[in-house]
Amino acid sequence: MKEYKVGLLGCGIVGTGVVRLLQENSSILEKKLGAKLTLKRIAVRDLEKDRGLVLAPGVLTGDFRQILADPDISIIIELMGGYSPAREYLLEAIGNGKHVITANKALLALHGQELYDAAARNRVEIRYEAAVAGGIPVLSAIKGNMAANRFGSVLGILNGTCNYILTRMTEEGAGFAAVLKNAQELGYAEADPTFDIEGTDTAHKLSILISLCFGTWVSFGDIHVEGISSVSDLDIDFAGRLGYRIKLLAIGKRYEDRIEARVHPAMVPACDPLAGISGVYNAVRLTGNYVGTVMFYGRGAGMEPTASAVVGDLMAIARNMLVGAGRRTAPLGFLDKNIGFVPIQPMGETVCKYYLRFSVLDRPGILAKIAGALGENGISIKSAIQTAKSGGGFVPLVIVTHEAKEIDVNKALDRIGAIGITSENPALIRIEDDL
Amino acid sequence: MKEYKVGLLGCGIVGTGVVRLLQENSSILEKKLGAKLTLKRIAVRDLEKDRGLVLAPGVLTGDFRQILADPDISIIIELMGGYSPAREYLLEAIGNGKHVITANKALLALHGQELYDAAARNRVEIRYEAAVAGGIPVLSAIKGNMAANRFGSVLGILNGTCNYILTRMTEEGAGFAAVLKNAQELGYAEADPTFDIEGTDTAHKLSILISLCFGTWVSFGDIHVEGISSVSDLDIDFAGRLGYRIKLLAIGKRYEDRIEARVHPAMVPACDPLAGISGVYNAVRLTGNYVGTVMFYGRGAGMEPTASAVVGDLMAIARNMLVGAGRRTAPLGFLDKNIGFVPIQPMGETVCKYYLRFSVLDRPGILAKIAGALGENGISIKSAIQTAKSGGGFVPLVIVTHEAKEIDVNKALDRIGAIGITSENPALIRIEDDL
User: Fold this and answer.
1) Is the distance from CB of B43 to CB of B62 less than 8 angstroms?
2) pLDDT for A223-268, tens place per residue?
3) Cβ B308–A146 below 8 Å, yes or no?
4) For residue B435, what pLDDT is reported?
5) Domains of chain A
6) Residue A205 known to be catalytic
7) Would you say B28 and B21 are in contact if contact means Cβ atoms under 8 Å apart?
8) Do B291 and A299 touch (CB under 8 A)?
9) Mean pLDDT of the residues in chain A
10) Is the pLDDT of residue A332 over 80?
């Protein structure tokens, strides 16, 4: 039986899952491949850490370059995370003619083009299914069986931490800070959760999905990114009353001369399947001009699902090697030379419905003033909820608009702010009910 | 640019979709493949029929064997349906060293082994993504990126006609016969809907999914198959009251020494995402020992989604040919020699919860008699709904059991039938709330 030697860089949670999968499912893998995948070396920073793994002596090493240079190793898996030295190691592995697998979405979102170019020059595969939506095989599907489509949109719930927090806020009526603290205690959120809760991680994944679906490079800094830290329990409550749920959505749409790429909390209809994606689950919904709408959902993170995606990539590469083929599919599905650059539409040009919550003085005539400012900017109101309170002070006023352009909404909000009837900046949440 | 010539057998709805896709999306395909896919010949029975297609002269032919023997054609797509001559044509194409693609689930469910063996001997690929769940790329995912898993279960809503009928019965409270008639008028059900509504089509697809997930041949005749023609609007109504929806489910489960393979109407919790799959949509849910639970949903039939799956297969084969590889992946993912045979567990051994609806005499003591017969057979009752009616006669009595073995339920029902307090055979619907 043929044997392929694999090197692993980094052995944290996902790396540990990969090692376990290769051990536990080895007979399944061999029955499918007719070849043996052997993890020859694992490079880690801390050789002493107990990972709960049974490894042959000599497998664990502190010397990353030993793996990168080993002529016996044909496939390198990078699971270190971070930009450096992951980037340098991957480039070195590719330069040495090794196929590479990575789960590093941040690196791909910012340095993907450099890595893909290097892989093309060296005729090796770079695969990264685990970088988006954990175990859900959505990238393979876009590059694989759905490749015959011209994709019009891609939409996702891509960050388990945010979805877990929003789900608990919705189910328990609890506030963001309290749920985040508890999520950190339970291990569902990092000690420093900024990347997750501020939407950066979701934007990294959206950038990858957009490149794959639309065959275009993405200028990452042009993606509009808002996280969930400003979502209040009041908004969650009003969303429910209006028949919506709040989700952190990644949205990509393709037009002739531009794309939309945005990450922000959005209200989706409670009856939409996306609203039902709860806890740490992820979902991706695509539309192609032939396949129509397809949705995938599953566990978006965690040791086992992510390991499933990594070893799936490993098997794909091994299948190529078994038939003597080097690089079979370009990293983005499109041949490298056919990947264009299409600008991202400025956020002000976005057209959707808006949920606006003002904190207003509890006195007559306020709604008229706000409605007036919206009307002057061409924004029509679909519904309004005004809460009266005995004793004056400030009360919430919620307005749901018909479709409007974001730049006009911003102008109206500036105007309303200047009137001096509101106590704080209004909450703005986009409504996506035409998904 | 390399060019691969393709032959198409049959040009009904799906075939027409394939032709259109190849024409409309040709630039996308070329940007991804760097090769040209040319439909050289299409064999049809009726040369005169207007398919609304613009074809070069000479493409359409009535001579199927001309395509099978054409040395210029390297890939054959079979979209004729039926067992014969589709089977003979596919075997001939394979024998001539051509890669083949088919959407013929009935043929694969009954003659798959013969076709896969022939493809193995001739070192060609046989691909059939369109045979199950239309455009949803679930077969590719099982063979592809999820291949590292040991699958424990596969579950699906696989027939659009049945799901459309059940959805309308649920939403409109209408009876089966009326909805079927209307569905036929609207083109959502065939003139002879037997294959669809009696569950046969679903069982064909389940058989394919089981072989792929578990690496085992399926003795098709051993699959328990019940359709939806006996589902009454009364049951739909009670399901709603109990917090369930009725769906025609395909269920496959893997145990050490046997598999479960059954197709029947089932009650699923209203909050389960499967309950929300409505109309002609299909869904497949899988559990793997690493990926966990993954669900896919999308359009399960129709010209465009099915064409997407067929051309996706075509691109996969073209990618192989471009790198000089013939057969890259065995038809079932597992190497042919590693496909075992595991018997299907007899239906009597099934353990689940049961919904039982009796039509009983409206008088005191009836529930006690029925509960007694159930208890004697070791079946405990979770809940009962008894409807009283003024004036005697027969009324519905609904019982929901805790987990029980089907053989015991059948014994109890025989016993109850013999008491002489029921007016007709009871309705039995399995409850699948532990999916």
Assistant:
1) yes
2) 999 999 999 999 999 999 999 999 999 999 999 999 999 999 999 9
3) yes
4) 67
5) 2-134+303-336 (3.40.50.720), 141-299 (3.30.360.10), 350-431 (3.30.70.260)
6) yes
7) no
8) yes
9) 95
10) yes
Q: Are strands B224-225 and B126-127 parallel, antiparallel or unpaired?
A: unpaired
**B147/A312 Cβ within 8 A:** yes
* B chain contacts of residue A315, beta-carbon cutoff 8 Å: 147-148
B326 secondary structure, DSSP code: S
For residues A58-64, average pLDDT: 96
Q: CA–CA distance from A339 to each of A163, A277, A330, A401 (Å)?
A: 32, 32, 11, 38
Catalogue the active-site residues of B.
205
pLDDT at position A387 is 79
Residue A17 CB burial class (10 angstroms; 0-12, 13-18, ≥19): buried
Contact (CB, 8 A) for B298 and A143: no
* pLDDT 10s digits, A256-302: 999 999 999 999 999 888 998 999 999 999 999 999 999 999 999 89
Q: Which residue has the tokens 């018997």?
A: B343
User: Residue A295 has which token pair?
Assistant: 């949705």
Measure the CA–CA gap between B377 and B361, rounded to whole angstroms: 22
Question: How does pLDDT run across B379-404, given as a tens digit for each residue?
Answer: 999 999 987 776 668 899 999 999 99
Q: Which residue in chain B has the smallest CA separation from A143?
A: B32
The H or E element containing residue A101 is strand A99-102
**Predicted pLDDT of residue B324:** 87
- How far apart (Å, rounded) are the C-alpha atoms in residues A267 and A249? 9
Q: Which of A136, A271, A328 sits opposite B319 (nearest CB)?
A: A328
What does chain B come to in residues? 435
| Active-site pick, A205, A247, A253, A411 | A205
Arithmetic mean of pLDDT, A83-89:
97
Q: Which residues in chain B have their CB less than 8 angstroms from residue A294's CB?
A: 135-137, 296-299
Q: Give the global pTM.
A: 0.96
pLDDT tens digits, residue range A112-127? 999 999 999 999 999 9
| Candidate from B17, B273, B329 with C-beta closest to A273 | B273
pLDDT reported for residue A435: 67
Quote ipTM for the complex: 0.95
| Mutation for A interface: B6, B77, B145, most A CBs within 10 A | B145
* Residue to test with chain A: of B101, B157, B214, B291, most A Cβ within 10 A: B291
Q: Which of A331, A88, A298 is nearest to A208 (CA)?
A: A331
Are B294 and A324 inside 8 Å of each other by CB? no
Instruction: Tell me if A308 and B290 make a contact (CB, 8 A cut-off).
Output: yes
**Contact assignment for B298 to A297 by CB distance below 8 Å:** no
In angstroms, the Cα distances linking A66 to A61, A72, A73, A92, A310 are 8, 11, 10, 12, 22
Contact B332, B127 (CB under 8 A): no
Q: What is the mean pLDDT of residues B336-362?
A: 95
B338 chain-A contacts, CB cut-off 8 A = 31-32
* B311/A290 CB distance under 8 A: yes
**Which residues of chain A lie closer than 8 angstroms to B332, CB-CB?**
none
Cβ contacts (< 8 Å) between B14 and chain A: which residues? none
Instruction: Give yes or no for a contact between A373 and A412, defined as CB atoms under 8 angstroms apart.
Output: yes
List the beta bridge partners of residue A156: A250, A284
Answer yes or no: do A320 and B309 touch at CB < 8 A.
no
Asked whether the CA dihedral A344, A348, A351, A356 is positive or negative, the reply is: positive
DSSP, collapsed to helix, strand or coil, labels residue A124 as coil
Nearest CB to B325 within list A32, A293, A323: A323
Estimate to the nearest angstrom the gap between the alpha carbon of B5 and the chain centroid: 31
Pairwise CA distance, residues A251 & B125, whole Å: 37
Give the model's confidence band at B31: pLDDT under 50 very low, under 70 low, under 90 confident, else very high: very high
> What pLDDT does residue B393 have?
84
DSSP letters along B176-215, please?
A: HHHHHHHHHHHTSS-SS-HHHHTSHHHHHHHHHHHHHHH-
